Amino acid sequence: MNEGETRLMSDESELQARLDAVYMAKSNEDLATAYDAWAANYDQDLVQKLHWNAPERTAACLAKYAPVTASVLDAGCGTGLVGEALAALGFRSLEALDLSAQMLATARGKGVYGAFHQVALGPAMELPDDHFDAVIAVGVFTEGHAKPDCLAELVRATRSGGFIAFSLRPDVWADLGFRDAQDALVAAGKWVLVEETDFQEGFSAVQTRPYKIWVYRVV
Ligand SMILES: C[S@@+](CC[C@H](N)C(=O)[O-])C[C@H]1O[C@@H](n2cnc3c(N)ncnc32)[C@H](O)[C@@H]1O
């Protein structure tokens, strides 16, 4: 094996270790620690190595429904890739929420958000009622990450007529309770589905993980 091949293998195993650390997190504290450690390398890993396209695609999906004047909460903003995608589309009123201080600090450096919340998505969040025109969450509803019990809180924080857009892997949707939680909110008259996309190709390079984008309108 030559030097270049050895470096590539060690890059890949480092990246796999970072993915394992976040997917296998057992608590919000573990998850925050893993993302704090990843923050400096996250953009390079996700964009250049994994070709992560969900921020742009989910932002474009939301922009079909929400005007660029909308106030948008980026829930699980990470390093701000979604905020950058929304800003490129003309959105100017963006707030960032994440449980990792280092991810939030990196997002702050992007200069696209006006407010920052270090908060864990969950069943009882300190977010105002009927406040945001839209919420977007990309790569946040998955194994070891935010659970479906935060959906009702995001609905509560979104004004009537506003939109909630998120990416989700269909296996996570079916197996980790998102389908049931989404359907329960429809049945309760809290939101209506406006779009469920076809499969989008997910991470490439180390693994392939297709996802879909869902957009709901809050009633
Ligand atoms: C895969 S990253 C996605 C970041 C960004 N949305 C993107 O698409 O690049 C997941 C982010 O969600 C945050 N996160 C995961 N679970 C969370 C929770 N329960 N509450 C708040 N943030 C959470 C993590 O800290 C991390 O920054």
Question: How would you characterize the overall build of this protein?
Answer:
By secondary structure, the protein is α/β, with parallel strands linked by helices. 42% of the residues lie in helices and 21% in strands. It has 8 helices and 7 strands. A 7-stranded mixed beta sheet has the order 3-2-1-4-5-7-6. Strand 2 (93-98), helix 5 and strand 3 form a beta-alpha-beta unit. The model has no long low-confidence stretch (mean pLDDT 93).
Provide the number of structural domains. Answer: 1
Q: What's the tally of helices?
A: 8
Q: Can you say what the CATH homologous superfamily is?
A: Vaccinia Virus protein VP39
CATH architecture: 3-Layer(aba) Sandwich
> What molecules are bound to this protein?
S-adenosylmethionine
Question: What are the salient characteristics of this protein?
Answer:
219 residues; alpha/beta; Rossmann fold; 21% strand; binds S-adenosylmethionine
Brief summary of the model shown:
By secondary structure, this protein is an alpha/beta fold. The protein is 42% helix and 21% strand.
Element layout with pairings:
Layout: H1 3-23, H2 28-49, H3 54-63, E1 71-75, H4 81-88, E2 93-98, H5 101-109, E3 115-118, E4 132-137, H6 151-157, E5 158-168, H7 170-175, H8 178-187, E6 191-196, E7 212-218
This protein binds S-adenosylmethionine (SAM).
